[in-house]
Amino acid sequence: xxxxxxxxxxxxxxxxxxxxxxxxxxxxxxxxxxxxxxxxxxxxxxxxxxxxxxxxxxxxxxxxxxxxxxxxxxxxxxxxxxxxxxxxxxxxxxxxxxxxxxxxxxxxxxxxxxxxx
Length: 117
Fold this sequence. Notes:
The chain is of the alpha+beta class. The protein is built from three helices and five strands. The chain has helices spanning 3-20, 60-65, 69-85, and strands spanning 24-31, 36-43, 46-54, 93-102, 105-113. It has a five-stranded mixed beta sheet, sandwiched between helices. The longest helix has 18 residues, at 3-20.
């Protein structure tokens, strides 16, 4: 399976897990000049920006390192872009999660990173 197909399949599995957890998906594949956010969801009064990583050949520890500081900054900038375009969410708490999908196993890291000042 090529990486694009694996990524799409992993994202679909992540969406199913998010919905099962009671979160509402409000957007997918948000793109800006800074980068992309895979999934935007609501959990109560929190808006959650979610990065999905799907790999079959690496360990969980390797996946964690795939979200380095540069990738985090791109996600944060894209989240800010989304919020500037969708002001109704501006008063909500913001959270950045990462969902790892490996061989149909899902690990959801809530509050995986924050914006560093």
